[in-house]
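Thread: quick sanity check before group meeting

JM: Hey all, I'm pulling together slides for Thursday and realized we never actually wrote out the predicted structure for the chain we discussed last week. Dropping the sequence here so it's in one place. If anyone has concerns about the input, flag it before I start.
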Amino acid sequence: MALRRPAHLDGISAGGLAAASLQLVLFAAALGSVSFAVGAATGRKGWALAAGALVAVVGYLANGVFPQVEALAWTQHVTPWHWYLDGAPLRHGVQWLDLPRLAAMALALVAAGTWAFDRRDIGV
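JM (edit): ok, ran it. Output follows.
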């Protein structure tokens, strides 16, 4: 907030910044939970990192590139990128319909990862 004036960002309110920050935290949690779930299920760091990166990249493409093809336009609405950025939280505040989607994705994948990790035989 202290850098708003020198950066010529006077149009960004404290509420808009807080809303974007909240949605960014849930966006990061949703993508991070993908890596956690895959890592817990497989025990392989490389697979976990690849899965998180794959969801991030394919989700980005599904949000921005795929909708240019009419048959693939539906993909935009099922991506974490869309849930995070679609309502322009910096301008319009918290997007109350998209926030639960990000939280549900993160919670479901953390629960699945915890369940998978609990059943792993890490003593071998």
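AS: nice. The chain has a mean pLDDT of 88. The longest helix spans residues 14-42.
JM: adding both to the slides.
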